[in-house]
Amino acid sequence: MKTAVKPNIRHFSLPELKEYFEKMGDKKFRAIQVYDWLWKVNVQSFDEMTNLSKELRLTLAEKFTLTPLKVNATQFSSDGTIKSRFITVDGHMIEGVLIPTEKRNTACISSQIGCSLSCKFCATGKMERKRNLDFDEIYSQVTLINQQSEKTFDKKLSNIVFMGMGEPLLNYKNVLRAIEKITAPDGFGMSPKRITVSTAGVAKMIKQLGDDGVKFNLALSLHAANDKKRNEIMPINETNNIAELVDALNYFYEKTKNDITLEYILLKGVNDTIEDADDLIKIYRKVPTHLVNVIEYNSIEGEKFVKPDEDTTQSFTDHLAKNRVNVRVRRSRGKDIDAACGQLANKGK
């Protein structure tokens, strides 16, 4: 005979918890207490809910599961970046990164265990996608990285980027529900304007973001500005080509007026010529983007890509700037602990 699977208490809304406590003959405010422990404190167990009676804590443990992420390993970079490897209740590993600067502390978080898109320059793309992360697992990354930020730098997180492992728009419902909790006053309470979701380019779901009227910002991992080159390094382009993405980004902006960033990793001999810059300028002028982020390539095992020299990078970005492109070079952080862009692959100790 199969044992009944206990429901995850974090999958219950506050009204549902209030209803549960009423049926138990308890007060509604108990639900609020429990809810605060779950979302504001991010407790690891029912025992930590110290303003509840021991009897009630035992009852909750009998009726529900509480399956938070746990920090499995932590690495500290010489530049202050902190990479954490988290373990899920079913034994999978994911990674998240805390990136501190003078002005902001940013959490780079994951949305899937592995990834199915196989982008050639990305270590996560070489991993098998095991499953999507639940919304509460995504949320837990934020609270755990925030605890690191407060402990190490005495500052709360100021920004969140969905640029870790996985493609956020292929885990659409959980990502949006996690952001709903991250921005909720009874959750983490962060402004959606401080959250950026990065996508390799799922045109249909970019349009869905527009239809859903999301409040957060969007970044497109472009990385090549013509279909031939993009097909070679990002297989998703074969089903979501640049013209479709331009159309989707315009639709998203028309519906939301939220910021759009184009991300562009420079790869020596692949996408770093002045002709490539001209192709990028053409896309920039077709999309209401506020910024092009030119990103340093970070080496990964099994690939022969290298980053261009400084002169090539400077010529590329100067050409963009001369043509009235708002461009910024994003320098890598955490390279010495494999925490930089494209390097997340559960290699931490």
Structural description of this entry:
The protein is of the alpha/beta class and 349 residues long. The protein has two domains: 32 residues, no CATH class; 268 residues, TIM Barrel. The chain is 35% helix and 17% strand. It has ten helices and twelve strands. The strands form two sheets. A ten-stranded mixed β-sheet has the order 1-2-3-4-7-8-9-10-11-12, covered by helices on one side. A two-stranded antiparallel ribbon has the order 5-6. Strand 7, helix 5 and strand 8 form a beta-alpha-beta unit. Helix 6 runs parallel beside helix 8. It is elongated and about 70 Å long. The protein starts with 13 loop residues before the first helix and ends in a 19-residue tail after the last strand.
Strand content: 15-25%
Q: Report the strand count.
A: 12
Order of strands in the sheet with most strands: 1-2-3-4-7-8-9-10-11-12
Distance between the termini: 41 Å
Which CATH architecture of the largest domain would you pick?
A: Alpha-Beta Barrel
By CATH, the topology of the largest domain is TIM Barrel
Number of distinct helices:
10
The major beta sheet can be summarized as: 10 strands, mixed
Q: If you average the pLDDT, what whole number results?
A: 90
Helix content: 25-40%
CATH class categorisation of the largest domain: Alpha Beta
- Looking at how many chains there are and whether they match, the oligomeric state comes to single chain
Summarize the helix and strand pattern as letters.
HHHEEEEEEHEHEHEHHEHEHE
Rg is: 22 Å
Classified in CATH, the superfamily of the largest domain is Aldolase class I
The unreliable regions are 342-346
Question: What's the number of structural domains?
Answer: 2
Which structural class is indicated by helix and strand composition? alpha/beta
